[in-house]
Automatic annotation (TrEMBL):
Belongs to the glycosyl hydrolase 130 family. GO terms for molecular function: glycosyltransferase activity; hydrolase activity, acting on glycosyl bonds. This is Glycosidase. InterPro entries: Glyco_hydro_beta-prop_sf, Mannoside_phosphorylase. CDD domains: GH130. The lineage of its organism: Bacteria, Pseudomonadati, Pseudomonadota, Alphaproteobacteria, Sphingomonadales. Keywords: Glycosidase, Glycosyltransferase, Hydrolase, Transferase. Coiled coil: none annotated. It holds the Pfam family Glyco_hydro_130.
Length: 407
């Protein structure tokens, strides 16, 4: 028989946050000092400037805590610590890389270059964020990744003001004194609540010669997706803004590295099946477009999309693509678009360049080989790619060999 027992929850006179703060305030000075010192000793080896972090958090929650007494510095730190929690950004997976030329190429050996690699990190709750690595590509094509820092930064964000829009975007600042691998761009807005996915970086060179790094990404709210745009001149200050227009409500947009006939240009997959070519006078507004590439071979029968921004080579625009076939098998191919009119397809690979083999099928999401951006160095395609949505590696292929494999 169903139970007739009822339960009554206590209704406190104060909110829970206030009760937590009151417990800290009730500690005698010696116990307060000992507990704070224990926590600082425990976490100072895991994070930078832990006291400043705790104090910042105290000021953030101060609006929901009402204290009728003076709060000492140590009390403020310990209260702030009780409203912090750690999150392992890359605990579940680290995948879907994108690569661009590093803005600092000083002290690099001849015919070598320094690069920045962005990655999609997934942690608890399947929340995606953007992490970074740096590395070198030697003249012979050898790839070396610099060891990441063990201490991620807790970045401060602010809303972009001066625009008559409730979701104009956010600005993220860091002083540039830390290793780039310490920067983690974590979801902070309602549109990003479910994650920031698949950043496609590109070094954009404008007509005046000014270089800006842009990155299109998918913002997932938990119910819907939309395209947003990251911009940074130097990887020290970032702006994240939503994109507008009827072509931005899907995944997988990738910006061309320069204007085409005076307009910004983009590849997209607005119908979730084909690759589209779009142009716009406003980098934040994208609508319309023309279908440029359709699925043709069995390994792309389900859908086809880009694996990052087009790369300009002597022969035209090189686009690394992904195709989805039977059993949700993601493979990587490539195609060549006309330099002057990128809506024209000149050639494409009949067979995949990369597909998961028997040793690479298992992982967070099996049967997936995927990338969000490559680069060309000394006429060699340098392609970072993810395996089974779990880890990332590199492949290289000379352009002559790649182009010869196209029909």
């Amino acid at each position: 028989m169903p139970s007739t027992e009822t339960y009554k929850y206590a209704v406190p006179d104060q909110p829970r946050a206030q009760r937590i703060a009151d417990r800290v305030l009730a500690l005698d000075p010696a116990s307060l000092h000992d507990e704070l010192q224990r926590i600082l000793d425990d976490f100072s080896g895991r994070h930078r400037e832990v006291p400043s972090l705790f104090l910042r958090r105290f000021h953030e929650v101060d609006g929901i805590i009402v204290c009728d007494c003076e709060v000492t510095h140590e009390q403020a730190l310990l209260i702030g610590a009780h409203f912090c929690n750690e999150y392992s950004y890359e605990a579940a997976a680290l995948f879907n890389p994108s690569i661009v030329l590093h803005p600092d190429q000083s002290a690099v050996p001849e015919n070598s270059l320094r690069f920045i690699l962005s990655l999609r990190g997934v942690g608890e709750g399947h929340i995606s964020s953007v992490t970074f690595r740096t590395g070198f590509c030697a003249a012979d094509g050898t790839i070396a990744i610099n060891p990441p820092s063990p201490m991620p930064l807790v970045l401060e964000t602010e809303n972009i003001s001066g625009e008559d829009r409730p979701d104009a975007g956010i600005r993220i600042k860091c002083d540039g004194s830390h290793d780039l691998s310490e920067i983690v761009i974590f979801p902070t807005t309602p549109s990003q609540r479910g994650g920031i996915e698949d950043l496609r970086l590109v070094r954009f060179l404008d007509d005046d010669g000014r270089a800006t790094y842009f990155g299109t990404y998918t913002a997932f709210s938990g119910q819907s997706v939309r395209q947003e745009l990251l911009s940074t001149p130097d990887f020290r200050t970032f702006e994240l803004r939503p994109l507008r227009g009827d072509a931005t409500g899907s995944k997988g947009m990738a910006l061309f590295p320069r204007r085409i006939a005076g307009h910004f240009a983009m590849l997209g997959r607005e119908d979730n099946e084909n690759i589209w070519f779009l142009t716009s006078a406003d980098i934040h507004d994208w609508s319309g477009g023309a279908k440029a590439i359709e699925p043709r071979w069995p390994w792309e029968f389900v859908q086809i999309g880009n694996c990052g921004s087009p790369i300009e080579i002597d022969e035209g625009w090189l686009v690394v693509t992904h195709g989805v076939g039977a059993v949700r098998n993601y493979c990587i191919g490539a195609c060549l678009l006309d330099r002057d009119d990128p809506s024209k397809l000149l050639a494409r690979t009949k067979l995949p360049l990369l597909r998961s083999d028997m040793d690479e099928r298992e992982g967070y999401v099996p049967n997936v080989a995927y990338s969000c951006g490559a680069m060309v160095h000394n006429r060699v395609l340098v392609l970072p790619y993810a395996i089974a949505d779990s880890f990332t590696t590199f492949a290289t292929i000379p352009l002559e060999r790649l182009l010869a494999a196209m029909d």
